[in-house]
Protein backbone atom coordinates (compact mmCIF):
# COMPACT_ATOMS: atom_id res chain seq x y z
CA UNK A 1 0.00 0.00 0.00
CA UNK A 2 2.71 2.50 1.01
CA UNK A 3 4.71 1.83 -2.15
CA UNK A 4 1.54 2.30 -4.22
CA UNK A 5 0.94 5.61 -2.47
CA UNK A 6 4.54 6.61 -3.24
CA UNK A 7 4.14 5.68 -6.93
CA UNK A 8 1.02 7.85 -7.29
CA UNK A 9 2.57 10.70 -5.26
CA UNK A 10 5.54 10.83 -7.63
CA UNK A 11 3.01 11.49 -10.41
CA UNK A 12 1.12 14.23 -8.59
CA UNK A 13 -1.75 12.20 -7.10
CA UNK A 14 -1.80 11.96 -3.30
CA UNK A 15 -3.47 8.88 -1.81
CA UNK A 16 -3.94 8.18 1.88
CA UNK A 17 -6.16 6.72 4.55
CA UNK A 18 -9.30 8.69 5.38
CA UNK A 19 -9.14 7.96 9.09
CA UNK A 20 -7.61 5.32 11.34
CA UNK A 21 -5.46 2.44 10.13
CA UNK A 22 -8.45 0.13 10.58
CA UNK A 23 -10.64 1.95 8.07
CA UNK A 24 -10.93 0.83 4.45
CA UNK A 25 -11.88 4.19 2.98
CA UNK A 26 -9.17 6.39 1.55
CA UNK A 27 -8.64 9.95 0.39
CA UNK A 28 -7.46 11.30 -2.95
CA UNK A 29 -5.87 14.70 -3.57
CA UNK A 30 -4.72 16.20 -6.82
CA UNK A 31 -7.61 15.09 -9.02
CA UNK A 32 -11.40 15.28 -8.85
CA UNK A 33 -13.83 12.43 -9.39
CA UNK A 34 -11.66 9.63 -7.97
CA UNK A 35 -12.46 7.61 -4.83
CA UNK A 36 -10.03 5.29 -3.07
CA UNK A 37 -11.03 1.95 -1.51
CA UNK A 38 -8.45 -0.11 0.41
CA UNK A 39 -8.74 -3.84 -0.24
CA UNK A 40 -6.45 -6.83 0.12
CA UNK A 41 -4.44 -7.76 -2.96
CA UNK A 42 -6.40 -11.02 -3.24
CA UNK A 43 -9.77 -9.23 -3.33
CA UNK A 44 -8.89 -6.82 -6.13
CA UNK A 45 -9.04 -9.30 -9.07
CA UNK A 46 -12.60 -10.24 -8.10
CA UNK A 47 -13.73 -6.63 -7.70
CA UNK A 48 -12.24 -5.73 -11.09
CA UNK A 49 -13.87 -8.62 -12.93
CA UNK A 50 -17.22 -7.98 -11.21
CA UNK A 51 -17.08 -4.36 -12.37
CA UNK A 52 -17.31 -2.89 -8.88
CA UNK A 53 -14.08 -0.90 -9.25
CA UNK A 54 -12.60 0.82 -12.29
CA UNK A 55 -8.91 0.45 -11.41
CA UNK A 56 -6.94 -1.71 -9.04
CA UNK A 57 -3.34 -2.34 -7.98
CA UNK A 58 -2.44 -5.97 -7.33
CA UNK A 59 0.10 -8.59 -8.33
CA UNK A 60 0.32 -10.01 -11.85
CA UNK A 61 0.30 -13.48 -10.29
CA UNK A 62 -3.06 -12.94 -8.58
CA UNK A 63 -4.74 -11.59 -11.71
CA UNK A 64 -3.58 -14.49 -13.88
CA UNK A 65 -4.32 -17.12 -11.25
CA UNK A 66 -7.76 -15.93 -10.21
CA UNK A 67 -9.15 -14.76 -13.58
CA UNK A 68 -9.64 -17.23 -16.43
CA UNK A 69 -9.17 -15.32 -19.68
CA UNK A 70 -7.76 -12.50 -17.61
CA UNK A 71 -6.90 -10.29 -20.60
CA UNK A 72 -10.58 -10.23 -21.60
CA UNK A 73 -11.57 -9.10 -18.11
CA UNK A 74 -8.88 -6.54 -17.26
CA UNK A 75 -6.35 -4.37 -19.04
CA UNK A 76 -2.80 -3.92 -17.76
CA UNK A 77 -2.11 -0.18 -17.59
CA UNK A 78 1.26 0.08 -15.86
CA UNK A 79 3.82 -2.01 -14.03
CA UNK A 80 4.68 -0.18 -10.82
CA UNK A 81 8.23 -1.44 -10.36
CA UNK A 82 7.93 -3.08 -6.93
CA UNK A 83 6.57 -6.28 -5.43
CA UNK A 84 8.78 -8.35 -7.73
CA UNK A 85 8.46 -12.10 -7.30
CA UNK A 86 8.86 -15.17 -9.49
CA UNK A 87 6.50 -18.14 -9.52
CA UNK A 88 8.79 -21.16 -9.91
CA UNK A 89 8.88 -24.95 -9.87
CA UNK A 90 11.20 -26.37 -7.20
CA UNK A 91 12.22 -29.90 -6.24
CA UNK A 92 14.38 -31.39 -3.48
CA UNK A 93 18.04 -30.51 -3.86
CA UNK A 94 18.96 -34.16 -3.45
CA UNK A 95 17.23 -34.97 -6.77
CA UNK A 96 20.55 -34.70 -8.60
CA UNK A 97 19.13 -36.11 -11.85
CA UNK A 98 16.20 -33.66 -11.97
CA UNK A 99 17.17 -30.27 -13.39
CA UNK A 100 14.58 -29.62 -16.14
CA UNK A 101 10.87 -30.12 -16.74
CA UNK A 102 11.67 -33.12 -18.95
CA UNK A 103 13.55 -34.60 -16.00
CA UNK A 104 10.56 -33.86 -13.77
CA UNK A 105 8.23 -35.63 -16.20
CA UNK A 106 10.46 -38.71 -16.16
CA UNK A 107 10.73 -38.61 -12.37
CA UNK A 108 6.94 -38.32 -12.08
CA UNK A 109 6.43 -41.45 -14.17
CA UNK A 110 9.03 -43.36 -12.17
CA UNK A 111 7.50 -42.13 -8.91
CA UNK A 112 4.05 -43.42 -9.82
CA UNK A 113 5.42 -46.78 -10.93
CA UNK A 114 7.32 -47.16 -7.67
CA UNK A 115 4.78 -45.80 -5.18
CA UNK A 116 1.44 -46.46 -6.87
CA UNK A 117 0.23 -42.85 -6.75
CA UNK A 118 1.05 -39.64 -8.58
CA UNK A 119 3.82 -37.31 -7.52
CA UNK A 120 2.37 -34.45 -5.45
CA UNK A 121 3.13 -30.80 -6.22
CA UNK A 122 2.07 -28.31 -3.54
CA UNK A 123 0.92 -24.85 -4.59
CA UNK A 124 -1.77 -22.22 -4.23
CA UNK A 125 -1.47 -21.29 -7.91
CA UNK A 126 -3.45 -24.16 -9.39
CA UNK A 127 -4.46 -22.56 -12.69
CA UNK A 128 -1.01 -21.18 -13.52
CA UNK A 129 0.83 -24.36 -12.55
CA UNK A 130 -1.58 -26.69 -14.35
CA UNK A 131 -1.37 -24.66 -17.56
CA UNK A 132 2.42 -24.41 -17.33
CA UNK A 133 2.95 -28.13 -16.80
CA UNK A 134 0.48 -29.01 -19.57
CA UNK A 135 2.30 -26.72 -22.00
CA UNK A 136 5.60 -28.43 -21.13
CA UNK A 137 4.32 -32.00 -21.36
CA UNK A 138 4.35 -32.90 -17.66
CA UNK A 139 1.27 -35.01 -16.95
CA UNK A 140 1.78 -37.65 -14.24
CA UNK A 141 1.27 -35.55 -11.11
CA UNK A 142 -1.40 -34.24 -8.73
CA UNK A 143 -1.68 -30.76 -7.25
CA UNK A 144 -1.91 -30.41 -3.48
CA UNK A 145 -3.36 -27.16 -2.15
CA UNK A 146 -1.02 -25.15 0.06
CA UNK A 147 -2.01 -21.70 1.29
CA UNK A 148 1.02 -21.05 3.48
CA UNK A 149 4.55 -22.24 4.32
CA UNK A 150 4.66 -24.14 1.03
CA UNK A 151 8.45 -24.53 1.27
CA UNK A 152 8.01 -26.88 4.25
CA UNK A 153 5.69 -29.44 2.68
CA UNK A 154 8.49 -31.53 1.16
CA UNK A 155 10.24 -31.84 4.51
CA UNK A 156 6.89 -32.72 6.08
CA UNK A 157 6.37 -35.38 3.39
CA UNK A 158 3.00 -34.01 2.25
CA UNK A 159 4.34 -33.28 -1.27
CA UNK A 160 7.33 -34.18 -3.41
CA UNK A 161 7.74 -30.81 -5.19
CA UNK A 162 6.37 -27.28 -5.01
CA UNK A 163 5.41 -24.32 -7.17
CA UNK A 164 5.61 -21.08 -5.22
CA UNK A 165 6.50 -17.40 -5.29
CA UNK A 166 10.07 -16.41 -4.47
CA UNK A 167 11.99 -13.14 -4.53
CA UNK A 168 15.54 -14.28 -3.77
CA UNK A 169 15.33 -18.08 -3.53
CA UNK A 170 16.84 -18.01 -0.03
CA UNK A 171 13.82 -19.62 1.65
CA UNK A 172 13.82 -22.39 -0.94
CA UNK A 173 17.51 -23.07 -0.38
CA UNK A 174 17.03 -23.00 3.38
CA UNK A 175 14.49 -25.80 2.93
CA UNK A 176 16.87 -27.78 0.69
CA UNK A 177 14.93 -27.09 -2.50
CA UNK A 178 16.25 -26.09 -5.92
CA UNK A 179 14.52 -24.28 -8.78
CA UNK A 180 14.38 -26.19 -12.06
CA UNK A 181 16.57 -24.56 -14.70
CA UNK A 182 13.49 -24.04 -16.92
CA UNK A 183 11.04 -23.81 -14.03
CA UNK A 184 10.13 -20.10 -14.21
CA UNK A 185 6.33 -19.99 -14.52
CA UNK A 186 5.69 -16.26 -14.20
CA UNK A 187 7.51 -13.05 -13.31
CA UNK A 188 5.16 -10.98 -11.18
CA UNK A 189 5.09 -7.44 -9.80
CA UNK A 190 2.59 -4.88 -8.54
CA UNK A 191 0.60 -3.61 -11.52
CA UNK A 192 -2.17 -1.09 -12.18
CA UNK A 193 -5.12 -2.79 -13.91
CA UNK A 194 -8.30 -1.40 -15.46
CA UNK A 195 -11.55 -3.36 -15.44
CA UNK A 196 -13.02 -4.17 -18.86
CA UNK A 197 -16.33 -5.15 -17.19
CA UNK A 198 -17.30 -1.95 -15.39
CA UNK A 199 -19.97 0.32 -16.82
CA UNK A 200 -18.52 3.70 -17.80
CA UNK A 201 -20.41 6.98 -18.03
CA UNK A 202 -19.11 9.91 -20.08
CA UNK A 203 -18.00 11.51 -16.80
CA UNK A 204 -16.13 8.33 -15.83
CA UNK A 205 -14.34 8.27 -19.18
CA UNK A 206 -13.32 11.90 -18.79
CA UNK A 207 -11.90 11.27 -15.29
CA UNK A 208 -10.10 8.14 -16.46
CA UNK A 209 -8.56 10.03 -19.37
CA UNK A 210 -7.38 12.78 -17.03
CA UNK A 211 -6.02 10.30 -14.49
CA UNK A 212 -4.11 8.17 -16.99
CA UNK A 213 -2.64 11.31 -18.56
CA UNK A 214 -1.40 12.48 -15.16
CA UNK A 215 -0.01 9.04 -14.38
CA UNK A 216 1.57 8.96 -17.84
CA UNK A 217 0.06 5.60 -18.74
CA UNK A 218 -1.96 4.70 -21.86
TrEMBL record:
<keyword id="KW-0028">Amino-acid biosynthesis</keyword>
<dbReference type="GO" id="GO:0000105">
    <property type="term" value="P:L-histidine biosynthetic process"/>
</dbReference>
<dbReference type="GO" id="GO:0005737">
    <property type="term" value="C:cytoplasm"/>
</dbReference>
<keyword id="KW-0808">Transferase</keyword>
<comment type="pathway">
    <text>Amino-acid biosynthesis; L-histidine biosynthesis; L-histidine from 5-phospho-alpha-D-ribose 1-diphosphate: step 1/9.</text>
</comment>
<feature type="domain" description="ATP phosphoribosyltransferase catalytic">
    <location>
        <begin position="41"/>
        <end position="216"/>
    </location>
</feature>
<keyword id="KW-0328">Glycosyltransferase</keyword>
<dbReference type="Pfam" id="PF01634">
    <property type="entry name" value="HisG"/>
</dbReference>
<dbReference type="GO" id="GO:0003879">
    <property type="term" value="F:ATP phosphoribosyltransferase activity"/>
</dbReference>
<dbReference type="InterPro" id="IPR013820">
    <property type="entry name" value="ATP_PRibTrfase_cat"/>
</dbReference>
<dbReference type="InterPro" id="IPR001348">
    <property type="entry name" value="ATP_PRibTrfase_HisG"/>
</dbReference>
<keyword id="KW-0368">Histidine biosynthesis</keyword>
<protein>
    <recommendedName>
        <fullName>ATP phosphoribosyltransferase</fullName>
        <ecNumber>2.4.2.17</ecNumber>
    </recommendedName>
</protein>
<comment type="function">
    <text>Catalyzes the condensation of ATP and 5-phosphoribose 1-diphosphate to form N'-(5'-phosphoribosyl)-ATP (PR-ATP). Has a crucial role in the pathway because the rate of histidine biosynthesis seems to be controlled primarily by regulation of HisG enzymatic activity.</text>
</comment>
Amino acid sequence: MEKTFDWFRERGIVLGRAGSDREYAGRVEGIDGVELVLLSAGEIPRELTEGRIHLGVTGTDLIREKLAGWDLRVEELAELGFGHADLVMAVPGCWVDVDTLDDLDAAASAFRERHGFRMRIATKYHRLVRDFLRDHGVADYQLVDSQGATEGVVKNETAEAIADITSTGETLRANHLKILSDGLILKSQATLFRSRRVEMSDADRAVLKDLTARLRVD
